[in-house]
Design brief:
It is a single chain. The chain is α+β, with helices and mostly antiparallel strands. The chain has six helices and six strands; from the N terminus they run H-E-H-H-E-E-H-H-E-E-E-H. It has a three-stranded antiparallel beta sheet. The chain has a three-stranded antiparallel beta sheet with strand order 4-5-6.
Length: 171
């Protein structure tokens, strides 16, 4: 059965988002699809844009990442058209999640964003979560945007060490 390639790419993205119980970043979805040469970056961006416009996928952008989740309408659509995805692609997605779910979940459980506060300072808001529960939630006020951005970037790399240090000092 011949079908529009964009439709297949949309169904693959919906299938991926349906197989997990956490949001994926657009970069994580892109990495999977581009690594397998299903399509190119520009086409994938069009696919994600069309899925969000059609409200089949919800998109939430934070400081440095866009989180994607499937909506109930997306699940319904996938249910009707899931047979258009080959068993080989489904198995590849399922294998990918079996092997990478922990890493993918861990990657999105550390969040850092910054914004300019009403006082004129910048605030870096840092969160580390596990299974949807905040383990740590810190807001730091700093004088410059560059400092706030650096804090958020370093939080991504060092959150585990910082959490361990704080708990060892406070307990």
């Amino acid at each position: 059965m011949l079908q529009d390639p964009l439709t297949l790419y949309k169904l693959i993205v919906l299938y991926m988002l349906d197989r997990i119980n956490f949001a994926m970043t657009a970069a994580q979805v892109s990495d999977y699809i581009l690594d397998r040469d299903y399509t190119n970056y520009l086409t994938l961006q069009q696919v994600i844009h069309e899925l969000t416009d059609a409200r089949l996928v919800s998109s939430k952008t934070t400081h440095n990442r866009t989180l994607l989740t499937i909506t109930s309408e997306g699940r319904q659509t996938l249910h009707f058209f899931q047979n258009r995805i080959s068993d080989a692609i489904k198995e590849d997605v399922n294998t990918y999640f079996r092997e990478k779910e922990y890493d993918l979940r861990n990657e999105i459980s550390v969040l850092g964003e910054y914004y300019k506060s009403t006082s004129g300072e910048y605030e870096a808001h840092l969160v580390a979560q596990e299974r949807g529960i905040n383990l740590i939630d810190i807001t730091l006020s700093v004088p410059t945007e560059d400092t706030a951005a650096a804090i958020c970037d370093n939080w991504q790399k060092k959150s585990s060490e910082i959490y361990q240090y704080l708990t060892s000092q406070l307990f």
